[in-house]
Write a structure and sequence with these properties.
The structure holds 3 protein chains of 3 kinds.
Chain A: H1 9-25, H2 34-40, H3 42-52, H4 57-66, H5 71-83, E1 100-105, H6 138-151, H7 169-175, E2 179-180, H8 183-191, H9 218-227, H10 230-242, E3 250-264, E4 271-289, E5 296-306, H11 310-322, H12 335-340, H13 344-353, H14 359-372, H15 378-402
Parallel strand pairs in A: 2-5
Antiparallel strand pairs in A: 1-3, 3-4, 4-5
Helix pairs in contact in A: 2-4, 3-4, 3-5, 4-5, 9-11, 10-11
Chain B: E1 8-17, E2 43-53, E3 58-62, H1 69-76, E4 84-89, H2 94-100, H3 110-120, E5 121-124, H4 128-131, H5 138-148, H6 154-167, H7 184-196, E6 202-206, H8 214-231, E7 234-239, H9 242-248, E8 251-256, E9 259-265, H10 266-271, H11 276-286
Helix pairs in contact in B: 5-6, 5-7, 6-7, 7-8
Chain C: H1 3-8, H2 25-40, E1 46-47, H3 61-70, E2 76-81, H4 88-101, E3 104-105, E4 114-118, E5 131-135, H5 149-157, H6 162-175, E6 186-188, E7 192-194, E8 213-218, E9 223-227, E10 233-235, E11 263-267, E12 274-278, H7 281-290
Parallel strand pairs in C: 2-3, 2-4, 4-5, 5-8
Antiparallel strand pairs in C: 1-9, 6-7, 6-10, 8-9, 11-12
Helix pairs in contact in C: 2-3
């Protein structure tokens, strides 16, 4: 029997799914708890929630487990889940001065009002494998926790003097008149306070409800980057700070902490606290020379993302600053370039779609190529057919594997 | 000189960069020797420029860099938007004239401006990168203008491109080569061929010989003069070089600090300059 | 609608169960609204708030959102990829739509009311009342001559298409023909240049003055566009270099014997010879059955 078109697709993909699930259970170790993932791999969860644009630690942990630890796939699942949920409303705007800070540093000033707080960071840890972690039990885990609680705290700093809120470092620069704020952001900022209900608030662009077009308002730009893939933002921001760009960032302030989330009670119209979310916020300043006035000022770049992800917040802040360039000279200064190429879910989908069959378009190109050849003598025909024998046998191998 | 309706009449052309204030126009210009407003820092690229171009005539605009002459030509070609002013057209091309009758074309949508530009204008820039696609063949560059004007026959377009390249002394054998491989003089000649391809009513020349070797300059200028006479196209020549103005133009406007300081017949201006700045310009050119 | 009203109207829902056609009703209404706009301006790319689907971006999420926002319980659905109902991606998408809508499905083009496709138009003539939904990877026909979206939107607005034409002109100068294989740009309604999705040139003439509604969805790129019935669709061509379709002269489908269909080229494993079969497998099967070449 000659070759016939591939049949039995349904069975093939069902079997492929089974094979994938089998990979997850083929070992003898006990299944991982959602709580274990959530509590012991919190940075992974933060990243999934950030890129999945949904603050839901339990769902993120579930997705992480289900996707065998593929963070991008897990974020993707959170986004798809959102699609099934109605949009009930928008939370009220929240100033980050109200943040319950667990970490706060400034690279710009040695002394900042409220003080530098290192908080939980791995910045100064030596990157040495800790072989003790390979031999942990619930008991040793608990013991370690008790030891840590005993060793930090009152001896390191005085907990009672820890303030509830901290002033923003960049406000120091602003008071001195050394900082130019983006006009657009000011405007948006004012409009944000009048919003209630399910309508998109005035002056805010909701990238999940509207397709972005360029030039995009800053609210759209910041939302896109808050959802973007950490690695993508990092690569572009790095290109700029390394030399393909003009941003020489100084981290004015980096904060990690918890922000309260308020929504308007639909019955009483009063704000209600519904919970809090962990966020990382970065404000970077970079020198900017105004050509017309000839004076140099600092301009601000802003980054904020879900969870504890400092690389993402800083990269975002650098890019927020760089895409304010009036005449982009490098990719990282071009708003469209940055925003269109950093969404992890979109880029990974498009990259992988090239695995899908393209028989029809390939046939069409083949037809064109044959026409452009000067002549189709027997020799050429033979070579082509030889090439094809190789390709087709590859196809039939795949077919066997699938079915 | 035979009085005909001008094909283009511009009044009060004004362009500024910056916020602008009440003092901008008062405190800038040749009397102050500056074009930046001391109050608000706005740069007045040009202000209150009036001009008219008659059929077949060659009008020159001369001035040093920063005088606003390039701004004028770019506003007329809609490359930059004017902040103020009125431009009326009377091109003799019926379709265009019906569209623009009694209107200020500066107020047209960018779609409308594009259509006017495609129908009646041709431009040659100082920098060939602005006027040519360096990676597209020379013939393709000319065809682009023809395609804009609605041509849809490859053979016809190639014939016309070849004819124009021949006229502008570019070897036809290089028609399918990209201009990035060409010398500066040849790039300018391709630009001229492109500008003339759709038989424009108005040809705009923005410092076309600046940056070329002297011998090459002379050849390009000769070519422009020859083609201008042959095709009878009204032309606006912007240059800082009085030699170019002398060779090509019949009437001239002198600009300084964004304003016109003197206008008249080119010969008269060169022989009997009135404004001190023109006098300086003429005397320094002659010595 | 106020927030209080929205809450009242919330369906009883748990994580494990999904509402009809997966996407929430508000979002479906919004997508239909944008689709209507697309129908009203043939060939114009309407931006829409593309939702995240449980299949990957680039794998037909635009087409899927159109199908899910339009489909009702009485619809008859057909899904094809590369012309085939049975290719893995088509199966996957059909399975998903079945799971969230329970609509009936068919492979018979004639019987389908909604057809979602990737890369092909079925060989059988599509009739009044049928909707063909294309999955679109790159909705912007000008992308190859201008990568910036900001710039291409301006070019469409001003009908500034000379660069696209120039691209074709240069192709002819270099190769004596236009080298575009699939995804051949077309002019819709004499106004907008449109990307017909990566269908072969073979399918292009069937977009012209069709009886069915053609909808195009690009999920990742967040665009919807449409060709309503009886709209002119002209491939870009020159007076002296006409558009032409793929050449299958003297080639016949080895399964059904059809001489006038788009063919897949294959090499017989056993003999090493080149053979051809219809790319539209449902059509092929029907034709073979009619000719008595297939049993059952």
């Amino acid at each position: 029997m000659a070759y016939v078109a591939v049949k039995g697709g349904r069975e093939a993909i069902e079997n492929a799914a089974k094979a994938f699930r089998f990979e997850q259970v083929k070992g003898d170790s006990s299944p991982i708890d959602i709580d274990q993932i959530k509590e012991q791999l919190p940075l992974a969860i933060d990243r999934i929630m950030g890129e999945g644009a949904l603050y839901a630690p339990d769902l993120a942990a579930l997705a992480f487990k289900q996707t065998s630890g593929d963070q991008l796939e897990a974020s993707f699942m959170l986004r798809a889940f959102c699609t099934t949920q109605p949009r009930l409303g928008y939370s009220l705007p929240q100033s980050t001065t109200e943040m319950r800070v667990i970490r706060r540093i400034s690279a710009a000033f040695k002394e900042i009002p409220g003080g530098q707080i290192l908080g939980p960071t791995s910045d100064y840890l030596l990157r040495l494998l800790d072989f003790d972690l390979a031999e942990e039990s619930s008991e040793s885990h608990k013991q370690k926790r008790a030891n840590l609680i005993a060793s930090i705290g009152p001896t390191t700093y005085n907990v009672t003097s820890f303030p509830n809120t901290f002033p923003k470092v960049v406000e120091l620069l602003e008071q001195e008149g050394l900082l130019i704020r983006n006009d657009a952001s000011e405007q948006t900022h004012k409009q944000r306070f009048s919003m209630v209900g399910t309508q998109v608030p005035d002056g805010i662009f909701d990238v999940t409800r509207e397709a972005i077009s360029f030039p995009a308002p800053r609210s759209a730009s910041l939302q896109s980057m808050a959802r973007a893939e950490t690695g993508g933002l990092l690569a572009l921001a790095y290109s700029n700070m390394r030399g393909f760009g003009t941003v020489h960032p100084t981290v004015g302030e980096l904060r990690v902490g918890f922000l309260p989330v308020y929504v308007t009670n639909p019955y009483t119209q009063t704000p209600e606290l519904v919970g809090e979310i962990k966020v990382t916020e970065a404000e970077i300043s970079s020198e900017h020379r105004d050509n017309r006035h000839g004076s140099a000022k600092f301009t601000l770049g802003y980054g904020l993302c879900f969870g504890h992800n400092e690389t993402k917040a800083i990269s975002m802040a650098v890019l927020d600053r760089s895409i304010q360039a009036e005449e982009p000279k490098v990719p990282s200064e071009d708003q469209e370039f940055v925003l269109m190429h950093t969404d992890g879910i979109e880029s990974v989908g498009f990259c992988n779609h090239f695995k899908l069959p393209h028989y029809v378009t390939f046939q069409s190109s083949l037809d064109r190529l044959r026409q452009t050849q000067p002549s189709t003598d027997a020799l050429k025909d033979k070579t082509l057919s030889e090439k094809f024998t190789v390709q087709t046998s590859h196809v039939s191998e795949t077919k066997e594997t699938l079915s | 000189m035979l009085i005909k309706n001008p094909i283009l009449t511009a009044t009060n052309l004004t362009k500024r960069y910056g916020p602008g204030c009440a003092k901008c126009l008062e405190q800038t210009g040749p009397d102050y020797g500056r074009n930046q407003c001391p109050v608000c820092g706005t740069v007045i690229a040009c202000a209150g420029v009036d001009l008219a171009i008659h059929p077949q005539e060659v009008l020159g605009v001369v001035g040093e860099s920063g005088s606003g002459k390039s701004t004028v030509i770019k506003m007329l070609h809609f490359d930059i938007d004017a902040d103020d002013g009125h431009v009326g057209l009377h091109t003799g091309k019926i379709e265009t004239d019906n569209r623009v009758r009694n209107q200020n074309v500066l107020k047209f949508s960018s779609f409308g401006k594009r259509q006017i530009r495609n129908a009646v204008m041709g431009i040659v820039y100082q920098n060939p990168h602005l006027g040519l696609r360096m990676n597209i063949s020379a013939g393709g560059n000319i065809a682009e203008r023809l395609l804009m004007a609605g041509w849809r026959n490859v053979g016809d377009m190639r014939k016309r491109s070849a004819m124009l390249l021949d006229k502008t002394e570019v070897p036809i054998s290089r028609m399918d080569e990209a201009p990035r491989n060409f010398s500066g003089g040849m790039q300018q000649r391709v630009q001229i061929a492109k500008a003339l391809s759709n038989e424009p009513v108005l040809l705009l020349l923005d410092e076309v010989t600046t940056g070329l070797d002297v011998s090459v300059q002379a050849r390009v200028l000769d070519l422009i003069r020859k083609l201008q006479q042959e095709m009878d196209v009204a032309t606006l020549v912007v240059s800082h070089d009085l030699g170019v103005i002398r060779m090509l133009t019949t009437r001239t406007m002198v600009m300084k600090n964004g304003r016109v300081v003197e206008a008249g017949l080119t010969d008269q201006i060169l022989e009997d300059p009135q404004h001190p700045y023109t006098q300086l310009l003429v005397s320094s050119a002659l010595h | 609608m106020s927030l209080a009203e929205s809450i009242e109207q919330l369906p009883e829902q748990k994580h494990a169960s999904y509402s009809f056609a997966f996407i929430d009703e508000g979002a479906k209404r919004e997508i239909r609204r944008q689709t209507l706009k697309a129908v009203a301006i043939p060939g114009y790319q309407v931006p829409f708030g593309s939702r995240d689907m449980p299949v990957a971006r680039g794998w037909g999420t635009g087409g899927l959102q159109l199908t899910l926002s339009l489909i009702g319980p009485d619809d008859m659905l057909k899904v094809i990829d590369q012309g085939s109902d049975d290719s893995v991606n088509a199966v996957n998408i059909r399975k998903f739509i079945e799971r969230v809508t329970s609509v009936n499905t068919t492979t018979d083009t004639e019987k389908a009311s909604v057809i979602q496709t990737r890369h092909r138009i079925p060989e059988e003539h599509l009739k009044d009342g049928q909707i063909l939904i294309f999955q679109v990877p790159i909705p912007e026909p000008l992308r190859d001559v201008e990568p910036s979206e900001r710039e291409t939107r301006r070019m469409h607005a001003e009908a500034d298409y000379s660069r696209m034409w120039l691209f074709l002109y240069e192709d002819i100068v270099k190769y004596n023909q236009i080298t575009i294989g699939s995804r051949y740009p077309v002019m819709v309604g004499g106004r907008y240049i449109m990307d017909p999705s990566p269908i072969p040139r073979w399918d292009i003439p069937r977009l012209h003055m069709g009886d069915a509604l053609f909808l195009f969805g690009a999920g990742r790129e967040k665009r919807i566009y449409a060709i309503p019935p009886h709209t002119t669709v002209e491939p870009l061509e020159f007076d002296d270099h006409r558009f032409n379709v793929e050449d299958f002269t003297d080639k016949v489908c080895m399964r059904c014997g059809s001489e006038n269909t788009y063919l897949d080229e294959l090499v017989d494993d056993a003999t090493g010879k080149r053979i051809y079969t219809c790319s539209d497998t449902a059509y092929c099967e029907k034709a073979a059955r009619q000719k008595g070449l297939l049993n059952g």
